Amino acid sequence: MMLDLLVPFPLIQLLLGSWGLVHPLCHSNVTITCSWPNRTCRPRGNNCHQSANPINVTSHYHTRGRYPDCSYSTTPQNKFYVVAWDPHQPGYSPNCLTPVGLD
């Protein structure tokens, strides 16, 4: 069910999933984070949730070039993350949250 929360958001799915030959940004399912207690974050208010444990992420850094011929370096890391969610939007299931930030 938690994975279903991201169905209407293909861009978030792309960021959280595999990019083929490029390492994924995030190697874990972050939707479970919305079940953790809220924490205050700016500028969004009190709708943020921090991961309970650090996860494996890969940071990508633009090194040269312009779209579509860009080059990036990558750095694998183990970090906590914060997800900001907005309440359900009109036209979506009441159980569907809108991810509006990932730090």
UniProtKB/TrEMBL annotation:
<dbReference type="GO" id="GO:0003676">
    <property type="term" value="F:nucleic acid binding"/>
</dbReference>
<dbReference type="Pfam" id="PF00074">
    <property type="entry name" value="RnaseA"/>
</dbReference>
<feature type="signal peptide">
    <location>
        <begin position="1"/>
        <end position="17"/>
    </location>
</feature>
<keyword id="KW-0732">Signal</keyword>
<protein>
    <submittedName>
        <fullName>Ribonuclease K3-like</fullName>
    </submittedName>
</protein>
<dbReference type="InterPro" id="IPR023412">
    <property type="entry name" value="RNaseA_domain"/>
</dbReference>
<dbReference type="GO" id="GO:0005576">
    <property type="term" value="C:extracellular region"/>
</dbReference>
<comment type="similarity">
    <text>Belongs to the pancreatic ribonuclease family.</text>
</comment>
<keyword id="KW-0964">Secreted</keyword>
<dbReference type="InterPro" id="IPR001427">
    <property type="entry name" value="RNaseA"/>
</dbReference>
<feature type="domain" description="Ribonuclease A-domain">
    <location>
        <begin position="11"/>
        <end position="103"/>
    </location>
</feature>
<dbReference type="InterPro" id="IPR036816">
    <property type="entry name" value="RNaseA-like_dom_sf"/>
</dbReference>
